[in-house]
Amino acid sequence: MSEPQLTADAVDYMTDTRPIAEGPAGPGCAKRDPIVVADDVSRRFGGITAVDVEHLEIPRHKITALIGPNGAGKTTLFNLLTGFDTPNSGTWQFEGTNLEGMSSYKVARLGMVRTFQLTKVMGKLTVLENMRLGASAQPGEKLRNALFQGIWGKREKDITAQADVLLAKFKLDTKRGDYAASLSGGQRKLLEMARALMVNPKLVMLDEPMAGVNPALTQSLLDHIKNLKAEGMTVLFVEHDMQMVRHIADWVVVMAEGKVVAEGPPAEVMRDQAVIDAYLGAHHDVDLGAAGGVQELEEVLAADEESVVGTEDAGILSEESVLSEDSEILAVRPPDDEDDDGDGTRERRTGRRAADSPPDVVPGTSHDSRED
Questions:
Q1: Mean pLDDT score of the chain, rounded to an integer?
Q2: What are the distances in angstroms from CA 126 to CA 119, 153, 169, 290, 310?
């Protein structure tokens, strides 16, 4: 008797060990079950290319980390995928639906929601009112229905009940009636994440969720992100904390200069020397705070073919740089030893500063400005 096949509802997403990629991991590799697929997405600001992604797939029911140095294009890519910005070229789909040219609110209604680096809570509304704003299908939003509570009253009760459940889960229920402006930075992050869940999303995109958060709330945020996956949601987040990425991410996408330069499981990506040098810096493993750390770094650099440490050029500017700097100085100031007074003769400069010149001497000249 054959074993029954697991259905999608029977899969435990926290322990699912099925391969994420269909083949070898690498930039633009195909995924077994992608929820987002992007092709040839680019965004330019003047002469600067902020995003230039040839192909990218986000795996479903997984936590994917998008990492890279500042200016790599991570947030810009978020903006493009969610309709907050318009690309110069490219196409992308969410669950097979083409999102090109779609407004951000329509993208959210499809189940693809995001948070921001700087929280976007409504400070002059209460925490509960902020939660209500995140819900969809509210008949009372239409002007002709707003005057008749019988039309929207039941839906508002349902929304309020849903909001109370989420506030309790995020431990914000005691702040239910407080103004959002009174919350701490970490509590605002929690509120924004909870509000995003009001639309029952399929994909949650978090832009630096740990930025500016008190360490006391960090573990709470981590637990909530893992719970999103446990509940069957897909998570894509931007983060600079490598320990956090290693701890919770199933898949890592690395961007640099607008391009996807690496993809794979966290352990493999962290060992990629190109990623280490580009993101963390070369020779990052030398602890300068340890005894002898500086000497160790000098020895490592001396063995580096691209470093001048330990050579005769160590500590010396290149001749081209020196000549270039001297040329710039000469271009804005005549020679120190003599100056042309404008009548074809040359007189030696006094070397005095303009502030030391007598009142009747015009600064920048070598002769008396009084009439003869």
A1: 79
A2: 15, 19, 18, 50, 63
Count Cβ atoms below 10 Å from residue 187 Cβ, excluding itself: 22
Cα distances (Å, whole numbers) of residue 350 to 44, 333, 337, 354, 368: 54, 15, 9, 11, 13
Instruction: Kindly provide the b/e burial profile for residues 70-108, where b requires at least 16 CB atoms within 10 angstroms of the residue's own CB.
Output: eebbbbbbbbbbbbebebeebebebeeeebeebebeebb
Least confident of 154-158, 193-197, 201-205, 336-340: 336-340
DSSP string, 85-137: S--SEEEEEETTEE-TT--HHHHHHTTEEE--SS----TTSBHHHHHHHH-S-
Report the range of poorest mean pLDDT among 196-205, 276-285, 359-368. 359-368
Task: Give Cα separations from 269 to 56, 159, 242, 352 (angstroms).
Answer: 16, 42, 11, 62
With b meaning 16 or more CB within 10 Å and e meaning fewer, what string describes 287-305?
A: eeeeeeeeebeeeebeeee
Residue 244 clears pLDDT 90, i.e. is over it: no
Based on DSSP, count helices (H) and strands (E) in the chain, helices before strands.
Answer: 12, 12
From the CA atom positions of the chain, what is the Rg in Å?
30
Q: Residue 313, SS3?
A: coil
Beta strand residue intervals within 239-351, DSSP E: 251-256, 259-264, 338-340, 346-348
Asked whether residue 360 carries a pLDDT value surpassing 70, the answer given is no
Share of the chain above pLDDT 90, in %: 45
Distances (CA, A) of 165 to 8, 160, 169, 257, 304: 26, 9, 6, 42, 58
